[in-house]
Design goal:
It is built from six helices and eight strands, in the order ββαααβββαβαββα. By secondary structure, the chain is an alpha+beta fold.
Length: about 190
């Protein structure tokens, strides 16, 4: 499995490798929904914490992390990433996803995940996984709608920046499942039109 750092695009969304040029638009997108950062993420990207989070997540390159700016209307309106890239085992996680509120519930998430999963499976992935905070009902439902299978819950998996101990739900799509998942996503995206 060899994942490339490149632009991924379809008619609904453009994913660009995250660069310094996306920083201020991402800051604005994160500031649009403080409740999400206060309750549902293990780290904060609000106010002064944004710069610390940026440096931690996007300030250095890593062979285990490829971050993308989620572009809509020519601006960065969110982020998503390949995480825990493990070429030896042909596995990768898709996560660190955040969309500004105006992008939720439409074509952006299924379109972005369609691009990311296609890229991973076309380059030899055996397994693509997603991890979601157990209390994040919206994200759990979104991952299931993608066609992923819930595998289980990692109890007391993580300490969040607020001090809450998080349970993490693990989902996956395997290579032999991808054609059916892909077809389901394509049908779903077709319903959104051009």
């Amino acid at each position: 499995m060899q994942l490339d750092v490149q632009v991924l695009e379809n008619r609904h969304v453009r994913l660009e490798p995250m660069t310094q040029a996306h920083r201020e638009d991402l800051r604005a997108a994160c500031a649009a929904d403080p409740a999400t950062w206060n309750d549902l993420y293990p780290f904060s990207m609000l106010g002064e914490a944004f710069d610390v989070g940026w440096d931690r997540m996007y300030g250095k390159s890593s062979p285990e992390w490829i971050a993308f700016a989620v572009m809509a209307d020519g601006r960065c309106r969110g982020t998503t990433s390949f995480l825990a890239i493990d070429p030896a085992n042909a596995t990768v996680e898709i996560g660190a996803t955040y969309y500004g509120p105006e992008l939720r519930g439409g074509a952006v998430n299924p379109a972005a995940k369609r691009l990311l999963m296609a890229h991973a499976f076309e380059r030899g992935a055996r397994r693509v996984q997603f991890k979601v905070d157990a209390i994040n009902a919206r994200s759990r439902a979104a991952v299931l709608k993608l066609g992923a299978i819930q595998e289980g819950i990692l109890r007391q998996d993580r300490l969040t920046w607020t001090g809450r101990i998080r349970d993490t739900v693990v989902f996956s799509v395997l290579a032999h499942e991808w054609p059916g998942v892909r077809d389901g996503l394509d049908a779903r995206l077709e319903a959104f039109g051009a």
